[in-house]
Write a structure and sequence with these properties.
By secondary structure, the chain is of the alpha/beta class. It has one domain: 3-Layer(aba) Sandwich (Rossmann fold). It has 5 helices and 4 strands; from the N terminus they run E-H-E-H-E-H-E-H-H. The protein has a 4-stranded parallel beta sheet with strand order 2-1-3-4, with helices on both faces. Helix 1 packs across helix 5 and helix 2 runs parallel beside helix 3.
Length: 152
């Protein structure tokens, strides 16, 4: 099983943004909730967590940029879910979002965690957003680790 482990992380004093797509909210909201739990567990103060909802995964890039510029966060977790359909829409949006998040990382010097599930089926998306396999928690931990790296 593929997984990542984290040392004890301390998020006190950090400002973290979480941008979440409402499209596929049955998947994205549990990811958001697990991410927020990770931030809380690591000691990020409630008033230093900024959550921004956006319509869909394509818009998470702009939402992340907004949090960076307006809230001056130390890191952002960009949460969305794309599920492949019968057209090329999935490929276009997945590529654009991937490139947009990468560009924010390199151009703003603020870590933006890629929390966009790109799944072939709804079952894959649900598997990655529920129970012990909910990826949102690790994304929250990643944001703290990367924000701490930025500050070091």
């Amino acid at each position: 099983m593929k997984e990542i482990s984290f040392e004890k992380i301390n998020g006190s004093g950090l400002k973290i943004g979480v941008v979440v797509a409402r499209w596929n909210s049955a998947v994205t909201y549990p990811l958001r909730d697990a991410c927020l739990q990770a931030l809380k567990d690591a000691g990020v103060e409630k008033e230093h967590i900024f959550v921004q909802d956006v319509p869909g995964s394509y818009e998470v890039v702009y939402g992340a940029k907004h949090l960076i510029e307006q809230k001056h966060v130390d890191a952002v977790v960009a949460i969305g879910c794309l599920i492949k359909g019968a057209t090329m829409h999935f490929e276009y949006i997945a590529e654009a979002v991937s490139q947009g998040i990468m560009k924010l990382n390199t151009e703003t010097s603020v870590p933006v965690i890629f929390g966009v599930l790109t799944c072939l089926t709804e079952e894959q998306a649900i598997s990655r957003s529920t129970g012990d396999n909910n990826h949102g928690y690790a994304w929250g931990q990643s944001a703290i680790e990367m924000a701490s790296l930025k500050k070091s």
